[in-house]
Amino acid sequence: MLENFNNKNFDYGRLCNETGLSYSYFKELFISKFGMPPVKYLTRLRIEKAKELIITHRYSITEISDMCGFENVYYFSNIFKKYTGVSPSKYTLNI
What pTM value is reported for the model? Predict the structure, then answer.
C-alpha cells in the first residue's frame, strides 16, 4: 500500500490474491493490526502525503490531488476537509 498509494486504480483484489487471502479475511487481519479498514488506511496515507505537498507550495491543489491518487480534485477537496476540518487551499493557514 505504501508503494502504490498514489495509484488511482489501487486494486484490493490483486493485493488479496498476492497474499492468498480472501478480502474479508484480509480486512479482518488488517483491522486487527492497524485499527481501521484498508480503504480508510489508504485514504489516510493519501491525505498525509497531500498535507506534506500542500505545505511546500510547489504544486496546485489539482496537481496534489492527482499525485496522491484521487479521482478528481472535487473528491479530494471533500475528503481532505473531512479528515482535516479545512479545505486544502486553507490548510497552510491553520498549521
Answer: 0.88
